[in-house]
User: What shape does this take?
Amino acid sequence: MNNNIETFLKGVVTDEVLGKIFISPFSILDYGIIPAILFRSSYIKAFSQDMRVSMYIAIVGFVSSLCIYQRNPPTVEERSELLAKAVQEYKDELVTRGQATSENA
Assistant: This one.
């Protein structure tokens, strides 16, 4: 947002005034009507761009939530059983690999 405001007001006000505006936007009223109108239009444009980006992010989040939706998701107990089974299979595989390496040595 600051970049947009800076590009709009770069030739109209000095760098010192820009610094004061970034600290307190209400100080633009002290420098006349033209800088105030330019500041207002730049602020509106920057806000519009921010809202557009936010809208796109919300759309992506909504579409991704539609893609990962499950009609009948597994319960916590079923997931725990599957995890315990996977851990046991992994341990059995490690034991089998260990025996195979000791036989080859």
Remarks:
- The mean pLDDT is 86.
- The longest helix spans residues 33-68.
- The chain has two domains: 1-69, 74-105.
